[in-house]
Amino acid sequence: MRKSKIALLLLSALVASCVGAETPVEETIKKLIEPRLGDGVKVDSVKETPYGGLYEIRFNGEILYTDKSATYLFSGHVYDAVNSVDLTKKRLDEINQIKFSDLPLQHALKTVKGDGKRVIAVFEDPNCGYCKRFRQTTMKDLNNVTVYTFMYNILSDDSFVKSKNIWCAPDRNKAWDDWMLTGKAAPAAPASCGATPNEAVVELGHKLRINGTPAIFFADGSRIPGAIDLKALEAKLESIKQ
What we know:
By secondary structure, the chain is α+β, with helices and mostly antiparallel strands. It is 37% helix and 19% strand. It has 9 helices and 11 strands.
């Protein structure tokens, strides 16, 4: 009995070690397809899908599909027509999910509205028109939420200047709202202000593959790229167990 238990444990460990490992076919596809995607492209994984004989190619937070011989590339979304499910979007949501508690919240502006029980993190560039509109409409009427705002400077050098001035202002949250809501710029940062989290936030954004602003992250690790209206944001928040 003891030997059988040991054998079972060893077998379980072996199976566990193989979970997620690529098959020989998937490894071959990876070697063939990677150089065909362009210089510097690194394929994260190749995985056989249960639909249409396609293989999923995952790289840089994106998904393409190929056939078994890696001859053809398919770009687009695969849908389950019977159940009306966007299978590609579902996979993208999975692979781009983050651990919210890992976000360096000390690098963000923090605003608490109402009871603050619901939590979101928003990456915004101070020169982003969509971000300003998002602040002036959706965020204006959102309540009972804690918002962590990461000033993510990707549009211009001036974005870094504005973010530094806001970070160094006596009241950062007010300086941010003044700029985003009414266009009132924060005064120039004093020489005594010292370091800001600007570079760290840019590095974080690249790591999280944030290619545009605003980008909204939720407590369950999911994200929504781009501005959404209040109704859609409330529906998303209601779907998350805080």
